[in-house]
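Open question from group meeting: does this chain pack into something compact, or does most of it stay loose? Before anyone orders reagents, we agreed to write out a predicted structure and look at it together. Recording both the input and the output here so the notebook holds the full record.
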Amino acid sequence: MYDWVLSWADSRYGVPALFLLAFAESSFFPIPPDILLIALAVAVPQRAFWFALVCLTGSLAGAFVGYGIGYAAWESIGQPVVAFYNGEETMAWISLQYQKHGFWGVLVAAITPIPYKVFTIASGVFRFDLLTFATASLLGRGARFFAVGWLIFKFGPAIKAAIDANFNRLAILATVLVVGGFLVLKWLL
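Structure tokens returned:
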């Protein structure tokens, strides 16, 4: 799968494939779009932010489809998708977390390697506020994809190996920075 995703980077369909991969990953597909985003941005570093925007747009569109699956088609589509990824325990945990920290849960899932599709579907299942869902998704996914775009724009192809090797750590660091930034703003205001 990894090689198949990378093969799109050398194709004239790389950008549409990036959009579709980001769309699918936010609602049902297991491969993160970061792989193709990195490959495209490394090939043309001056367009890294454009690729990040395409990835963000596809991901947000897919997030709304995931939300719709949970909202309108949980039993027929949502449950089988969650079961396929053995996400039943995650769904139970998410239910409790939505009651306490819905915005933060979606935000963290949008940034980190946690299966975001489970959170998009769960948001619909639990009828999470759509504006709050959209805001957390935009901030989280935007931080994730634009951080990758910025790193490649700033450091060029040399950063690719470091991103590949440390993606999970970088995602956790980004989450800490974003959440910490919000807490500082909340404390200051």
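Observations to bring back to the group:
The two ends are 46 Å apart (CA to CA).
The chain has a mean pLDDT of 83.
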